[in-house]
Design a protein that fits this description.
alpha/beta; Rossmann fold; 2 domains; 7-stranded mixed β-sheet; 15 helices; RsmH; SAM-dependent_MTases_sf
Length: about 325
């Protein structure tokens, strides 16, 4: 736990809504996005016998303090079934995932996730592999535009990509503010209260650097494989791309028609593997948003594992961005 989180304990988003819908809590749980450990501690306090916390960020692993009944493991939640088995759990009672970047990462300028303060253009959760600087300095213009449009839903993606390529001919991008300034010169000034204009582009680059959507797809399938009958899958997302994937996964895995086909007959497919606990996404109430503004965009979906074999890979139409679908061979 960081000094900041020790002084002001981290309150995980929508934890009250999760616990209210899954009680009683028991058995072994997986917290696939450990971060400051808020979900793991809340699950233990609610009655979980043991929690396996997973995090891919080496700084989280270095800062975490030992806690009774919580085992912290380095890795990605896309491998959570393998990690659980290696820890001696062939089945688990629940999986909770808080998708996206953590407050600790955003608040550290040296990590390069945010442009609120200047820092190196990094964005790597694992401090390994290509950074955001590598992407904007090396990728062709068309690929940069593709990333900005598909992962950031940025309508001015081509104009921004063209400006990035022009600017890098003069000097390579090294810092967050240098990139943000080029992006924001291509866009209208936002109205008061709206996010800064470069926000969508930074989100897109972060998702691409860390393969966040691909990891989410793998994590959902891994949870399906490792959950015991009656086990709970709870997923908190923070933007529409993530929520769309979770929504479509749970809809198809619970026997519903694919998105956009509600008037068509349900095609014969694998037996349902989940029963929906939440029919619609749960959002934070006004009190939680006031206490934690990050909760404003959060959406929670929960499902309970049925006693059926996991569905075969690719059985769900997840509405993936075309770039990711190509990379995953779908």
């Amino acid at each position: 736990m960081s000094p900041a989180s020790a002084a002001a304990p981290h309150v995980p988003v929508l934890i009250g809504a999760i616990l209210a819908r899954i009680a009683p809590v028991g058995g072994i749980w997986i917290d696939g996005t450990y971060g400051a450990g808020g979900y793991s501690r809340a699950l233990r306090a609610a009655g979980a016998d043991h929690v396996i916390g997973i995090d891919r960020d080496p700084e989280v692993l270095a800062a975490a303090e030992p806690a009774e009944g919580i085992t912290l493991v380095p890795g990605r939640f896309g491998d959570l079934d393998r990690i659980a088995i290696n820890a001696g759990a062939n089945e688990v009672s629940g999986v909770v995932l808080d998708i996206g970047v953590s407050s600790m990462q955003i608040d550290a300028p040296e990590r390069g996730f945010s442009f609120q303060k200047d820092g190196p253009l990094d964005m790597r959760m694992e401090r390994a592999g290509p950074s955001a600087a590598d992407l904007v300095n090396q990728l062709p213009e068309a690929e940069i535009a593709d990333i900005l449009f598909q992962y950031g839903e940025e309508r001015a993606s081509r104009r921004i990509a063209r400006a990035i390529v022009a600017a890098r001919r003069e000097a390579s991008f090294e810092t967050t503010l240098a990139l943000a300034e080029v992006i924001e010169r291509q866009l209208p000034r936002p109205k008061p209260g709206q996010p800064r204009a470069a926000t969508r582009s930074f989100q897109a680059l972060r998702i691409a650097v860390n393969d966040e959507l691909g990891e989410l797809v793998r994590g959902l399938a891994a949870a399906e494989r490792i959950l015991a009958p009656g086990g709970i899958l709870a997923v908190v997302t923070f933007h529409s791309l993530e929520d769309r994937i979770v929504k479509r996964f749970l809809r198809t895995r619970s026997g519903g028609a694919p998105a956009g086909s509600r008037h068509a007959p349900v095609a014969e497919g694998p037996a349902p593997t989940f029963d929906l606990v939440t029919r619609k996404a749960v959002e934070a109430d006004a009190a939680e948003v006031a206490a934690n503004p990050r909760a404003r965009s959060a959406k929670l979906r929960i499902a309970r594992r049925l006693d059926t074999p996991p569905a075969p890979p690719g059985a769900a139409d997840l509405g993936l961005p075309a770039r990711l679908a190509r990379e995953m061979g779908r």
